[in-house]
Design goal:
The complex is a heterotetramer, with 2 copies of chain A (529 residues) and 2 copies of chain B (266 residues).
Chain A lengths: L12 H23 L1 E3 H10 L12 H13 L6 H9 L6 H9 L10 H36 L7 E6 L4 H13 L4 E4 L27 H18 L4 E5 L5 H10 L4 E3 L4 H6 L3 H18 L2 E3 L2 H7 L6 H17 L7 E2 L1 E3 L9 H15 L6 E3 L9 H17 L4 E3 L12 H18 L13 H21 L6 H8 L18 E3 L7 H8 L4
Parallel strand pairs in A: 2-3, 2-10, 3-4, 4-5, 5-6, 6-7, 8-9, 9-10
Antiparallel strand pairs in A: 1-11
Helix pairs in contact in A: 1-11, 1-13, 1-17, 2-3, 2-6, 2-9, 3-5, 4-6, 6-19, 7-8, 9-11, 12-13, 13-17, 14-15, 14-17, 15-16
Chain B lengths: L3 E2 L23 E8 L5 H13 L6 E8 L3 E9 L11 E2 L8 H12 L3 E7 L7 H7 L16 E5 L6 H11 L3 E5 L7 H16 L7 E5 L8 H4 L3 E3 L5 H12 L1 H8 L4
Parallel strand pairs in B: 6-7, 6-8, 8-9, 9-10
Antiparallel strand pairs in B: 1-5, 2-4, 3-4
Helix pairs in contact in B: 2-7, 2-8, 7-8
Classes of the chains: A alpha/beta (529), B alpha/beta (266).
The complex binds cobalamin (2 copies) and pyridoxal-5'-phosphate (2 copies).
One pyridoxal-5'-phosphate binds next to helix 10 of chain A.
């Protein structure tokens, strides 16, 4: 972390407190709703933690078969584990995998155990799931060990680079090359559309579009390759992937077990940009964040995305509001400050007078509001054009803001943003750009002192004020969960998403009174068995 | 379909052949960059010169060579290209319809179609880039022009992103769509091409010949002139404005109106 | 001029005074030497002011023929005007041009007039030369009128762009295009080697190497074209060329008469980088600067060049010393502060830690030492490579220093610096770069406050200290003009140039007691007749 | 002269053909930029595509088109180039001499030449770029290596810049130069080529055959392999170090020494 957290903005502390209080007020009802529901993906994630993996010959994962069969048989209101371990206890199959295989042809009858049967099923399922949780714990310890051995990057911000060939075997050497050239964090961009698959693909994959499928095997291959490179370059190279989407809980579980280090996980991205049902999203999000909290994974939120559909000046305060909500939801799920890679982006029209200073002001606002979070600073995308020479220049000024405002994670911008997914040379040019700016100009923080009530302070206060007003407005919305109303109204990213529509709605199930999920219990209590 | 012209009107003042211009007429100068999957060194530099020469750059100067990892080298090359450019041979796709004002559009539809013109729009496949199609369809519009929704006589059904093709065909049928507008922004591995051809095939299968709605695709990276091979009626590229699209729809679907203006336009 | 001259460095006023005193001490003996000599080019310039122009069929200018003939006949110790107007009075030829033509075949006998003849010749030559001086005065007034009509650029720094096709007819449209895209000052780079020609070429030229010949006709054509463009774009576009070289006095005279607005004119560039004899240079320089002073022309000095042969960190103080000397020589010749475009450059190795801040420090030092001079800020050249993407980035950070330190004139850097003389597209990309930086980040001056005794202040003080030490050392050199010794020792730009060698030495003539030069008189007294 | 090899030693692991690499093996992707002397518009874009296609880029995408003034348009084009690169056909000019240490150089000259080796250096024509030749000749050197002056057994006469050819020939004769080293940095309108050929012609005219000093030119923008056509013995390019030059001189002028090491080197 940058040793110095610049107290440059002189925000009114009362305003900051007020903003947080409002965020809690807006977020709490949604957490309550999330706690009263489960989803097919939460249940599948639980089975994955219990050790069920693999897929049939059509690549449909066994967890999907089993959850679907249970749902058809007895419903998911009590969770998937009760009927499943009850069936195992009853000897319907010798093990979980066989049970799932039999269930895929609907040759198992499930029932909801009661009394002692229920207690026994609960106990055995908890044992099974605890196994997965301990794998996560072990991976977290392994990460801590490796970081100690190889070391953290020397500088802040950490340099975050994306790889997106669609083919894990092309991704690997590119990621390794990038790390050798200075990348601290590698993100493997996911194949477009994966987030809408209601299952997690299996195995090593070579056929993604504009990204590579997120699979357990791809996670494993890349993490192993980067472990080697970490040794070679003498610093621990972090690996990132995307949790967002219909399988958020499962991917979070896989990431924890395969030692990914950061995960894209936003409370609203799926809703707004993927038209995933809001309830589905909030339920999945809470579970996935509990997993990330346990795994010591840093989450990356997606506020940058809003600025691709809304204007970055007019909608600046929506970013702040979303950051406050992401913070609230994250802490509620057990994440700590150092795990909050809250997002924001350099997306103001560069032709605007003083656009660079406005970026500075917005970036400082985030820095000041969340002094202990490793903010993730996202590069220009919307105003990038096919003029790659200009593109590299803009990226340089983006990097300068990153350095001047003490950002934690710098997502490296590419000059070809408006043209193609990054080429190998684009990454190289981009890293050279970052190195120049951090090395030659990074120390400029010493000389950067926005004066009291100057342009930068004034703008930051204005944005914070607008954020407070918006939060206030949201709390004034009707209904039990005003945030859901606000999302339905198009408050964020100009997307209107009612809670009664969207993809994955049919995978949402209201919990019955006897609902049991040993994963949730282990995560919420911190227990290991 | 679009009128392809090679009329000389626009080129009369241009010489019949010309060359790229660095700092002197006829110098032919170009800049090229690429990566070769070879370790940096003399052989790689020679290979870069070989490629440049095959591209017609002679003499080519490798002004920058940088190793990327161990097996790749990035090059920047400058030099004169020997090819000539013949502007007269360029087939310019001229706009084949007149640009109409909002009022003209409404009037034409009202008078000559005598019902609302129905447009169904979507991003298909897994493409979630809605900014482009929204720019065309939503009231908010683009580049200062209001989107299609703004026109009283146009009914817009915007299905949003990630619409499956069967779903789109079904909605088009339900809504009795006059035109189907589809956006495709992701182009890696030619996703836009396969999605578009699949889409047009589905429509041609689902509707009797002559009843297929007008098929329009748009996005920043379509090749001009490829509408035919994609099986659609028209392509709109980078920087399209809603007014152009509305005018085209009237031209293509409201024949009277377009005839009555044709003389003045284009 | 930037409204605000940042007092950010807190230099010790006594140090600054000391530096200036030393510069005067070093410069004065050289001025004395310059006042005791004339050169062939000073005499030719005088004839040009008197209206003699044109060249023979081999393009040898008539002024060269006439000066050479006089020199052969009676020597130049008394100046060229006495023998020439004496010959005219004696009816050797009906006019100056005919006289020169006759002199070229050595068919005129010159003598040194005495008594009344001498007085009459002096009077008539003064009348003739005063004509040229009044042309210069009229052009200066015309400039003032046009600036009033079309306006000055809206922003500081003024944007200075070079054109260098070698062909005046390609230069013109390129210059006009550049002005439309935002250039405020156009410099036509001179054909390589022209500065070593001991004559000024004639007419419109199309065959320069890496630049276009500086000729009176090329000056006229370009100025006329830019006058049109000024009208079109609504701001007065300034035109620059190069005085330095063996014909410095003549080119200065032509520039004054053709209304150029700025001229490259350095007290030592010709000596160091063109191996021109030091005495020749100082004599020519003094005369040319007197002309520039009269013409209201802004001079541009060449300190940037030193940093191409010396290291920009180690030799930073030599830039300061040269600026102080250039200032002294300029003021002695009658130039005012607003005419002193003192040079400095962004030439520190960009891979050096904190290189950007060191550039800021050096640039601020110049700004603080010369608060009323329109400093000319020169782009990176030495560390530019064939990597044009990186090049455009470096130029962006160069532009940022220009904006942050209130430079007066920004010479626009080109991404192809290490490759070719600028292409039309390079200029366009470069201007776009400047526009972005000035517009988006220019206001950052508000937030830029190097702290007391921080990196920037400390470095600036160090450089000033080293400059004072060096000046002190120079004054300690032996001989009547220690500066000449220092130049001979390789103090500047690591070039050793003894006063007894170098090109153009044979064109230097010690003045006799009766030496008369009406141009010098008119320039020094400010008289118009 | 320099040994041209096309041995496969360096390429054994390389495939016999390869293509530029964007983000996938074989994708052939390149980036190109140039200006056409035409007003921006559809025709100019078509002309840019025409040129790209003549360069072998297909399909080419014009990703950026910007008017420069009225009569010019700047383009950035991306796309796959259809040409193949054949590394095996690249003629690599291998260093034809072993690299010697400073001590080896002095010893070789002392033992086998038995007098100082005399080198005359200059920038000729109007070229005033001395940094390059100084980097080779002056003690200060380049890239951490001392320049030729540093060697006890080498006598260096550095004439500086803007030396006229007759002057250079004269000095070479006076000094009984073993080698003449000339730098050329300015290349606009091929100034470096005409200056170099004029120089070599002058030497061949002034000296009897077999007595011409070794002629060496250097500068960042000479084409490799053009020594022959320029009439000089060797060219040194971008990034040359003094050690390379000294070793070459010993190799070319002190035959014994170079033979005694040859086996180990190159
Ligand atoms: C905004 C944006 C996003 C937003 C989209 C938000 C939204 N709701 O649309 C978010 C952040 C969600 C996003 C996500 C992704 N994106 Co995106 N994104 C962009 C970005 C920055 C701008 C696109 C844009 O909005 N342009 C502005 C609009 C107005 O222009 P337009 O789309 O060209 O539309 C105009 C014309 O083309 C035409 N038009 C377009 N469609 C139609 C349709 C009709 C019928 C008509 C008549 C006209 C028409 O008219 C419009 C107005 O003139 C570009 C980079 C860039 N600067 O271009 C990348 C870019 C398009 N994205 C890209 C990628 C890869 C993705 C991801 C797949 C990455 C990943 N793997 O996670 C994801 C997933 C999205 C998906 N599956 O589609 C790549 C595509 C690469 C390629 N060529 O294949 C780009 C180029 C970035 C890059 N270099 O990698 N992205
Ligand atoms: C420094 C410099 C100057 C300095 C020169 C100071 C000096 N005493 O040398 C000054 C400021 C005086 C100058 C002036 C001009 N310059 Co200049 N300058 C440069 C610059 C920035 C760096 C050159 C350099 O020093 N490189 C470092 C040395 C170490 O590299 P090198 O020369 O390549 O040498 C190495 C090898 O090539 C080789 N080598 C070179 N020579 C030899 C000789 C032998 C025998 C051997 C064995 C090896 C060898 O070994 C060296 C070490 O590795 C370049 C731009 C750039 N970044 O490259 C422009 C550049 C070379 N200049 C240029 C121009 C046009 C000029 C001017 C003509 C402009 C004008 N019209 O006023 C003037 C006039 C100079 C003239 N007539 O020659 C152009 C040339 C364009 C072209 N390709 O034709 C360039 C490329 C800038 C540009 N883009 O416009 N310049
Ligand atoms: C928070 C977040 N999640 C996910 C994604 C990508 O999601 P998808 O795989 O749905 O394209 C993004 C996009 O950059 C994001 O910001
Ligand atoms: C002060 C000065 N004079 C002249 C020149 C150019 O001189 P020449 O024409 O001798 O190359 C320069 C070079 O940039 C310069 O800085």
């Amino acid at each position: 972390m940058s040793s110095r957290t610049p107290p440059l903005l002189e925000l009114d502390r009362a305003d900051v407190r007020r903003a947080r209080t409002l965020a809690r007020k807006v977020g709490k009802p949604v957490v309550d709703i999330a706690s009263r529901h489960t989803t097919v993906s939460v249940e599948r994630a639980t089975l994955r933690l219990a050790g069920l993996s693999g897929a049939d010959h059509e690549r449909v994962p066994w967890v999907n078969h089993l959850v679907d069969a249970v749902r058809e048989g007895v419903g998911l209101e009590h969770g998937v584990t009760q009927p499943v371990w009850d069936a195992l206890r009853r000897g319907a199959a010798p093990d979980l995998l066989t049970l799932a295989q039999m269930a895929s042809s609907r040759s198992v009858d499930f029932r909801l155990p009661e009394g002692k049967d229920a207690t026994a099923a609960a106990k055995q399922s908890r044992q099974a799931v605890a196994h997965g949780i301990r794998t996560i714990d072990r991976q977290r310890a392994a990460r801590e060990r490796l970081v100690k051995r190889h070391g953290d990057p020397e500088q802040r911000p950490w340099i975050y680079l994306i790889v997106a060939t669609g083919d894990i075997y092309e991704d690997i050497p590119q990621a390794q090359a990038a790390a050798r050239e200075g990348a601290d964090v590698i993100a493997v961009i996911r194949s477009t559309g994966q987030s809408l698959l209601d299952y997690v693909p299996e195995g090593a994959t070579r056929e993604g579009y504009a990204g590579t499928y997120a699979t357990q095997e791809n996670f494993r291959l890349m993490r192993a390759a980067l472990d080697e490179t970490s040794k070679e370059v003498g610093r621990y190279i972090r690996l990132t992937n995307y949790a967002s989407g219909l399988c958020m809980p499962e991917i979070a579980a896989l990431a924890g077990m395969e030692r990914l280090d950061m995960m894209l996980n936003d409370s609203m991205y799926g809703i707004l940009f993927r038209d995933i049902n809001p309830i589905r999203t909030f339920v999945d999000q809470r579970f996935s964040r509990q997993v990330h909290a346990r795994a010591g994974i840093i989450i990356n939120t997606g506020e940058d995305n809003y600025l691709t559909t809304s204007d970055a000046v007019e909608a600046a305060h929506t970013v702040t509001v979303s950051q406050l909500l992401n913070e609230y939801f994250a802490k509620e799920a057990g994440l700590e400050d150092w795990q909050l890679g809250l997002g924001h982006a350099f997306e103001i029209n560069p032709d605007l007078k003083d656009s660079f200073r406005m970026e500075l002001s917005h970036a400082l606002l985030a820095r000041t509001l969340f002094p202990d979070a490793p903010l993730k600073w996202m590069p220009p995308t919307k105003h990038m054009t096919g003029d790659v020479f200009r593109g590299n220049l803009l990226d340089g000024f983006f990097n300068l803001v990153g350095a001047l405002t003490g950002q934690g994670i710098l997502l490296v911008g590419m000059m070809t943003e408006a043209v193609v997914t990054p080429w190998i040379s684009d990454r190289d040019i981009a890293l050279q750009n970052v190195r120049y700016v951090l090395n030659a100009a990074g120390g400029l923080t010493e000389d950067f002192h926005p004066p009291r009530d100057g342009f930068i302070q004034t703008r930051a206060r204005q944005v914070l004020g607008e954020a407070i007003d918006l939060l206030q407005q949201i709390t004034d919305e009707p209904g039990r969960a005003p945030l859901l109303e606000a999302i339905a109204d198009g408050t964020f990213g100009e997307m209107k998403r009612p809670a009664t529509a969207g993809k994955g709605l049919d995978g949402v199930v209201e919990r019955a009174d006897g609902y049991d999920n040993p994963a949730t219990t282990l995560l919420e209590t911190g227990a290991t068995r | 379909m679009s009128a392809v012209t090679s009329d000389e009107s626009g080129v009369t003042e241009l010489p019949s052949v010309l060359r790229p211009y660095g700092d002197q007429t006829g110098d032919g100068m170009v800049q090229v960059s690429f990566t070769l999957p070879m370790p940096n060194g003399k052989r790689a530099e020679g290979a870069a010169l070989q490629l440049a020469s095959r591209m017609g750059i002679e003499p080519a100067l490798v002004v920058h060579a940088k190793a990327i990892g161990e097996g790749f080298t990035f090059f920047v090359v400058y030099g004169p290209v020997k090819h000539l450019v013949e502007p007269g041979l360029v087939e310019v796709v001229e706009r084949e319809f007149p640009l109409l004002s909002g009022k003209e559009i409404n009037t034409a539809i009202k008078r000559h179609l005598r019902r609302k013109l129905v447009v169904v729009g979507a991003c298909i496949g897994t493409d979630a880039h809605t900014v482009g199609i929204d720019a065309i369809l939503n009231i908010k519009g683009f580049a200062g022009e209001k989107g299609l929704e703004y026109h009283r006589e146009v009914k817009v059904v915007n299905l949003g992103a990630q619409v499956l093709i069967p779903e789109l065909v079904e909605r088009a049928r339900e809504e009795k769509a006059d035109a189907v507008l589809v956006s495709q922004v992701v182009t890696q591995r030619d996703a836009h091409i396969s999605n578009t051809t699949a889409m047009s095939a589905a429509f041609r299968e689902a509707f009797p010949a002559g009843k297929v709605p007008l098929l329009v695709v748009g996005g920043p990276r379509f090749e001009e002139g490829s509408a035919g091979s994609l099986g659609v009626d028209r392509i709109f590229g980078r920087g399209t404005t809603p007014g152009e699209v509305a005018s085209y729809l009237v031209h293509a679907l409201v024949p009277q109106a377009s005839v009555s203006r044709q003389s003045k336009g284009a």
